[in-house]
Amino acid sequence: MENEIFEIISHGGNARAFAFEAMRAAEEGKAKEAEELLEKAEEELSLAHKTQTKLIQMEVNGESLQMSLLMVHAQDHLMTALSEKSLIEHMVKLYKVIHKNNLV
Q1: Residues 42 and 85: beta-carbon distance below 8 Å
Q2: Does position 104 have pLDDT exceeding 90, yes or no?
Q3: Among 42-46, 62-66, 79-83, 85-89, whose mean pLDDT is lowest?
Q4: Fewer CB under 10 Å: which end of the chain, C or N?
Q5: How many CB atoms sit inside 10 A of residue 30's CB?
Q6: Which CATH architecture has domain 2-100?
Q7: Better-predicted residue by pLDDT, 30 or 104
Q8: How many distinct helices (H) and strands (E) make up the chain?
């Protein structure tokens, strides 16, 4: 189960990194690059979610999964990445408006 936990942490971390890169690209007026980076973030989140779902299905099917601090950390990491990506998507939209209207 540790491998799955580290997959969630790793993909969640990758997603956060891509999302923040997207925000920096948007700040610089690079809207297309920002969109591509958000897509990469979404792909990473999808991989993390797939692993999370696998673990949930194991538990639903009667397998006893030991809850550990590492698992709690992985879940926290994933939820934070999801939340930050969502906020950054809105920020990218705002930066597009700002740059389109030359408000910088």
Answers
A1: yes
A2: no
A3: 62-66
A4: C
A5: 16
A6: Up-down Bundle (1.20)
A7: 30
A8: 3, 0
Which pLDDT score, from 0 to 100, does residue 8 have? 97
Cα–Cα distance between 79 and 12 in angstroms, integer?
8
Q: What is the DSSP letter of 103?
A: -
Ranges of each domain in the chain: 2-100
Amino acid identity for residue 82 in this structure: L
- φ/ψ of 87, rounded to 5, equals -65, -40
Catalytic machinery residues: 73
**Helix-helix angle 69-100:2-27, to 10 degrees:** 20
Q: How many residues does the chain have?
A: 104
For residue 57, what are its two tokens? 């299905």
pTM of the model: 0.92
The C-alpha torsion from 48 through 51 and 55 to 56, rounded to 10°, is: 60
CB-based contact 32:92 (threshold 8 Å): no
Report the pLDDT value the prediction gives residue 86, as an integer from 0 to 100. 98
User: Does residue 4 register a pLDDT over 80?
Assistant: yes
